[in-house]
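Exercise: predict the structure of this protein bound to guanosine-5'-triphosphate.
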Amino acid sequence: MSRTAPIPVTLLTGFLGAGKTTLLNRILTERHGERIAVIENEFGEVGVDNELLLGSDETIVEMNNGCICCTVRGDLIRILTDLAIRREAGLIDFARVIIETTGLADPGPVAQTFFADEDVARCYKLDAVVTVVDAMHGAAQLDAHGEARAQAGFADRLLLSKTDLAEPAALAALTARLRAINPRARLMDAPFGNAPLDALLDVRGFDLDAILEVAPDFLTSHHHHHQDDIGAFVFEAERDFDGARLEDFLGGLVMVYGNDLLRYKGVLAMAGRPERIVFQGVHMMMGGTPEGVWPAGQPRRSRFVFIGRNLPRELLERGLTGCLQKPVPAAEVGQ
Ligand SMILES: Nc1nc2c(ncn2[C@@H]2O[C@H](COP(=O)(O)OP(=O)(O)OP(=O)(O)O)[C@@H](O)[C@H]2O)c(=O)[nH]1
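Solution:
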């Protein structure tokens, strides 16, 4: 299909909330003079990350109907093939692809696609697996989740985010542990995605022989099972949130469920605030920042995604609905 050089692909991975989108935004907004096609895979059926990406004139393809490492691997092949065809026809232009996986993806099967599918292998070459590790929550994530260990094990680059928040002793212990899991990868501090671009792109790092050494069944294994108790809950609303009530509710929620709330994020409409409020949370750490305005002529529609273990869905539904501004009674409308 392709007569030109294979297109380099960077696989950006890391556990839920590690800082993948933050790093991606850093890459997209840096003046590197290159067009990048981005494939975003999110865990909930409704995505938020595409709204958080800054370099919006890039080609961005969303994959939200399943996790890239299992159910939607066929979609990934179709998307990659379609991008290559459109590029060759001169309809779009990009020099490389960055795939941001869900925080629960095992990068192994995704990397496998670049060797196992003929069309993909002809048009693309996997340049590197870049894994972001949260310096604050990383050790607990490595303990609890096989996916976090696989992400570290497959990495060509290990980037430590949130080094600004971690205790030096904990940081040293995590660094030693990552080096033991994956001595092959170059490891560096990258608070807020701050790492030199030339250390991330054109790494020519993905080494099939090295991978076959640590994962001999890499080219043949297909099955990956997510922990069944981890799920996503999506809440959408067209009434604004009451800021004080939302703060109270989320404060109480994380006190009780913080351990199991792996990740929550949203783009929210708050009463009295004209801007969109981007809300981010990982376990008990959360915060909101104003980011951009709502598109003119469209409803201020909030979208909130929670990812966690045994999520209290009913409580979330009731609690969040209770944080919305009360509807104006019909009798008062037009008075
Ligand atoms: N203090 C601090 N916060 C960070 C750093 N990197 C990322 N964050 C914050 O951590 C939160 C999660 O960051 P994201 O970049 O959205 O993480 P992600 O890996 O894309 O998350 P998911 O894709 O939802 O799993 C956001 O609130 C970021 O601002 C860092 O180095 N230091």
